Amino acid sequence: MNESTTPPVKMPGGDAIQPRPILWLITIVAVALSLFQLYSAGIQTFGLFYQRSIHLALVMMLAFLMFPAFGPSRQRGPVGTLIDIVFFAGAVLTGGYLVVYLDEIINRAGFWIQTDIWVAIIATVTVLEASRRAVGLGMTLIGVMAIVYAFAGPRGEFPWLAQFMPGILEHRGYTLERVAGQLYLGQEGIFGLPLGVAATYVFTFVLFGAFLESTGAGKFFIDLAYAATGRQRGGPAKAAVLASAGMGSISGSAIANVVTTGAFTIPLMKRLGYKPHQAGGIEAAASTGGQIMPPLMGAGAFLIAEYTQMPYLEVVKVSILPAIMYFATVYLFVHLIALKQGMQGMTRAELPQVRDVMRSGWHFLLPLAVLIWLLAISLSPMRVGFYAIVTIVLVAVLRYVYWFFFIAPQHGETVTGDKILATVKAGLLKLTESLELGARNAVAVSMACAVAGIIVGVVGLTGLGLKFSSMMLAFSGGNLVLALVMVLLASLVLGMGLPVTASYIVLIVLVGPALTNEFGVPLLIAHLVVFWYSQDSNVTPPIALAGFAGAAIAGSKPMETSFQAWKFAKGLYLIPLFMVFNPEIIVGGPVPLVVWNAVIAIAALLAFAASLEGYLFARMSWFSRLLLAASTVAVFYPNLLAEVVGVALIALLVSGNWLAHRRGMLATGH
């Protein structure tokens, strides 16, 4: 790692300035990781510990190469290089020890030797450091606090800490050997369910997204959204909503959605008349919705399926209606602002035509069709991802072969051996870039899941989950609404330091038992509520990461943009509440009841958007806005009479506003 002789190179994606040997190492490790995942997904499956330990070792090696010890803005230097080499060796040891000695470790059945414990300690420290670099300090600190909590008790390493803990949080305390064994040598720690999901389903679909992105699928979805909505009032903003929904089925990150679609939509929204902070807020709210949009839902759908032991396809199916309701709310806000400010759509000449977009990119729909079909026949999600990747590679190759041999000659280009060789080289380079991009995109999620495994392991060891349930029941006084508010506040606090996936895992382990056992919320709905609430850190000030990304593109103030995103994303808070009190839209029920609940939910969200914006067909008085807000509360109240009264009042107020709009149009002669 000699940096003095090699000029540094800026890595794509805003990463650290890296010397060329490090860039080559990153490519080698990343491609090796992706190939290992493809092999294990579609050719030869591995045992639990083999799969997860190899995956984690390669991910941590990649993290230490991608993220220097002292931050991306500083060169490594001799000290930094030494630190990176030490931790890189720790990553190799973490995975290698289990792979080589797994049979002996299993045969010891809990009677660990001293070498086991030392490797476990090294592995835990290495995981925490890799998390600090790839995810952030917040995640690492929570992992450290969990370990310290495990030590805090009369029989633990830190017995003196027990006196500072409230009585309900007290436990016996555990030794270094017990905690290390729990976290590294068992199935409930680092190599637990969260990392298991990341090392199988999540990585495969992140890699699928990388192949779609590198082959141009993102531009196809954005162009399709523009072609469909561009001529309507506020067209680019509506295109942002639809494009973010489409990109949400590819990307695993709200921020990635913002920077991908926002680079196109935000400038057009501003040109059309949206204020910069509105444009950034709309994009942030729409991109956050991509995380709750089936089929991927970030990593959420796979985690929910594993935790609830429900088929993945079932989780996807029940999530479609709530996701549509969310995007309908954002779409309504966009439409109301366009009406309120008298905006017009874009001209036909400024927009791509649906026919042209489909002609040039219809093949991007084939891998998605294969994906949906394979899921429908109940194939394993990991195998589905593998075949989807194979499909998009074949489609890309066949499309280029067709162009090279049949279209290019019609334009006077001759096919020669040199051109064929150059084309093959370009194709292999594109394949390598896709494999590397998929691995790089998965580092943060995998490291977050590894540290989440530490937290889950400590919760299981100390019984913290049951204690947290008791605390939640005591503080809420048995009131479900207050309990949900507590979950929302907890998700906001956790979201300030954790990524969405980690926030969901930590929260569901802590509050899930209380919601299901103490408050009677169905298991699947409890998971969906916690998962939805875990998204709020993307759009809720003061730490609104998607809002900040939108502000950077829009050139607006971060806080103003974040407050706009918070307003547009209100469905994120209301729809989970509706799920809890109207569980039929998730768990099923009589068709008329499900239809009724869907209709009143959309009516209430319409009323809520209009009451916040003060506009529907025409401007609304403060009194009408207050009545609409009250009607929304009535619809969400778990009582049939209240629902009917709320819907009737919404219908009355909406009709009155429409009539006022018609009278105004007639008076002006329009």
Textual characterization of the structure:
- This protein is an all-alpha fold and 670 residues long.
- Among the domains are: 1-111; 590-670.
- The protein is built from 28 helices and two strands.
- It has a two-stranded antiparallel sheet with strand order 1-2.
Net shape? globular
Structural class call reads: mainly alpha
Please indicate the percent range of residues in DSSP E strands (runs of 2 or more).
Answer: under 5%
- Count of DSSP helices? 28
Radius of gyration: 26 Å
Summarize the SSE layout with pairings:
Elements: E1 8-10, E2 17-19, H1 20-42, H2 48-66, H3 77-108, H4 114-134, H5 137-151, H6 176-184, H7 193-214, H8 217-229, H9 235-248, H10 254-272, H11 276-289, H12 300-308, H13 312-340, H14 354-361, H15 365-376, H16 381-407, H17 417-462, H18 464-476, H19 480-495, H20 500-518, H21 523-533, H22 545-554, H23 558-568, H24 571-581, H25 584-587, H26 591-613, H27 622-636, H28 640-667
Keywords, separated by commas or semicolons:
670 residues; mainly alpha; two-stranded antiparallel sheet; 28 helices; 74% helix; disordered N terminus
In short:
This protein is mostly helical and 670 residues long. It has 28 helices and 2 strands. Among the domains are: 1-111; 590-670.
